[in-house]
Amino acid sequence: MAAAPVAAGSGAGRGRRSAATVAAWGGWGGRPRPGNILLQLRQGQLTGRGLVRAVQFTETFLMERDKQSKWSGIPQLLLKLHTTSHLHSDFVECQNILKEISPLLSMEAMAFVTEERKLTQETTYPNTYIFDLFGGVDLLVEILMRPTISIRGQKLKISDEMSKDCLSILYNTCVCTEGVTKRLAEKNDFVIFLFTLMTSKKTFLQTATLIEDILGVKKEMIRLDEVPNLSSLVSNFDQQQLANFCRILAVTISEMDTGNDDKHTLLAKNAQQKKSLSLGPSAAEINQAALLSIPGFVERLCKLATRKVSESTGTASFLQELEEWYTWLDNALVLDALMRVANEESEHNQASIVFPPPGASEENGLPHTSARTQLPQSMKIMHEIMYKLEVLYVLCVLLMGRQRNQVHRMIAEFKLIPGLNNLFDKLIWRKHSASALVLHGHNQNCDCSPDITLKIQFLRLLQSFSDHHENKYLLLNNQELNELSAISLKANIPEVEAVLNTDRSLVCDGKRGLLTRLLQVMKKEPAESSFRFWQARAVESFLRGTTSYADQMFLLKRGLLEHILYCIVDSECKSRDVLQSYFDLLGELMKFNVDAFKRFNKYINTDAKFQVFLKQINSSLVDSNMLVRCVTLSLDRFENQVDMKVAEVLSECRLLAYISQVPTQMSFLFRLINIIHVQTLTQENVSCLNTSLVILMLARRKERLPLYLRLLQRMEHSKKYPGFLLNNFHNLLRFWQQHYLHKDKDSTCLENSSCISFSYWKETVSILLNPDRQSPSALVSYIEEPYMDIDRDFTEE
């Protein structure tokens, strides 16, 4: 039973207050002063005690107070809603009240996400704030969840239309009133229940939008295996629903980011991995497995990702999806952009959609449209782009998960790569018009633009797909695969086994494969483009792993090396991210390849150019150390080969001559060790440690390891800080042992990329960490006793 209403009058009315009302007001003996009502409601909302709902007031009192405060009658409506939404109600009157409340909140929500939001501050108690303060949110949650209650063995039912109104009102309140979304996120049973509302097309969009917002602030990730009948739910989605559902999946299958930079260090990641091993799979991993167990799930995603614009659903379906579009406020900027495009094309082409005011609809549920219901082509394209963004993201996350090989097999089988190749020119990398679509408040080059985000997501997918996997050759067409075979034949080397094993029925069709198309747009990209980083990463992933001469020559023949050098030297690129990606790509392209070094020397044909190149390398070794490593490894191999072509390159190449000098190697080694510490090691800069090890391993092969350690000691003394470098290096190598001896993938990558057996890596580290001060190859032999500091705990700062 609800608490008895508060008496509106004075005098005799005070004596008739119920005990429940007195308790609700905390025993306060006087009539509530109007100025304190909202404060008390807010306090009650925080504590769960005292004034918390409109039902604790009489209608007369609320009307009187509303005249002064202009609450738009919301508290009175909530009082009626509570009365008409009891368990035995037919909900007819209840739905009428919701229809009255909805426009009061929806217009405010629309204002909130536009430039007018500055007018709707909480201090003016806007409608959504009053609605929540008088218990509206909790009441709607109770109404929505009525179907979970059984009376005499029968579950209660509410109409889809009523559920839709409740969801819209809840979402608008979340948009405008701080803290509402977080409170809903804490109601785990409610969040799980929301998924069941997605079975109806009428409530799908509102439900999906609300769920996405709630999951975005939820502290603990929801587990999809707790959703009733998940497989049936997802299998019954049409393609548009599945694409929108991917927005929710993006939150549920990605590992949660704590936002703490320390968590990105390898120390913290290792600690987290140990903790995870004891706890079992994470919620994200469980959710990925749950999705992959749904029959046909990945196949449908591949079809969505590769669907052409002409194959997408027609105007009527799209209009139905945008019905009452004001509730889709997480995409309000996108819809705003779509409407502007529609209006622009209407002015030029006289073919447009007339968007109705919120709530206006025909009897069949579709918004009123003009006689000309042809959807503008730009809106069709943007509609498809928004879908593909979400789908590609989900596929990308699955490709990086525990079931990577299973996902790889399915993606290949369902021809995702050939499908994306066919969309490359017309959708993914389509040419923009002069008035290219951008979001409200953004510019054409902003990374938030849907067009730009799609390109980046596409490139991330290619990177994940190609990285250390033989399926990377699906990025080529049959003619290009034949070219790889011809390169191997001409060089008199065995053909790559993965090329021979590639299923030719699954590769790209057309004149060019996806990799070649990517190279073409990469070379045309403006100097300041943000795509350069992602393009280089995607191409580099194709080269990663065991070095393939044929793969390198395939790219060299298409002018990739010259393009990279132009960007590094002639355009004097300033972006650290782009420089790092270009140096990494250049290293993979040149490693062990005599032809690549000849091309390098032909392009860098003056001392001036070479000095610019060295300046870029030395400006940040964190960015360029992978190139330094690849050149060092190549030099070592070339010096051990008896071949006229190799001898010619060794005698002519400026870069090889520069790296061959011991002072150069020592300078690199000193700086590589000095810029990293155990506490600051990340996935990005741990390569500096491995590059320093490569230099010392190659020195050990030549029995020069003691010389290099002695030179490091001298360099320490010259800096007037004896021991600081070698102590740090000792700690770094101790961490290296802990990190790599328990991570199979990382050790395999080190072996494949360097062509040095991992056993030699381990032996070299063990020799360097030998505690015997008499050993000429042990670090401790070069640290004087007063400066010894090698046993520090890794967690110490």
UniProtKB/TrEMBL annotation:
GO terms for cellular component: Cul4A-RING E3 ubiquitin ligase complex; cytosol. GO terms for molecular function: phosphatase binding; ubiquitin-like ligase-substrate adaptor activity. InterPro entries: ARM-type_fold (IPR016024), TRPC4AP (IPR022162). Pfam families: DUF3689. GO terms for biological process: hair follicle maturation; protein ubiquitination; ubiquitin-dependent protein catabolic process via the C-end degron rule pathway. PANTHER family: SHORT TRANSIENT RECEPTOR POTENTIAL CHANNEL 4-ASSOCIATED PROTEIN, TRANSIENT RECEPTOR POTENTIAL CHANNEL 4-ASSOCIATED PROTEIN TCPC4AP. This is TRPC4AP isoform 2. It comes from Pongo abelii.
